């Protein structure tokens, strides 16, 4: 139609430009033109931590806040270092073995990349 990319959220073809942003009129999703260009270049999922650092498979992260473990009274304490993460699709976008707890899924918004 207009040569603009489809909406990454709902795949609508009716996207339009507004300054430096692309907007979908059907689901109201907004994204930058740069992000759209990067997405066209690579089909790699971009996962960022709580402060915006790019995460990759094999990275080491630290837990940024106390995390209650569903179904138990246990808590993963802030500052817990988790090594060798694996990025996956889904709500919990990190699979890892948390020391003292075993394998579990984590959300990237609750971790920070370790230096």
UniProtKB/TrEMBL annotation:
Residues 4-32 form the Protein YjdM N-terminal domain. It comes from the Bacteria. Residues 47-114 form the Protein YjdM C-terminal domain. InterPro entries: YjdM, YjdM_C, YjdM_N. Pfam families: YjdM (PF03831), Zn_Ribbon_YjdM (PF08274). Belongs to the YjdM family. NCBIfam families: phnA. This is Zinc ribbon domain-containing protein YjdM. It comes from Ferrimonas gelatinilytica.
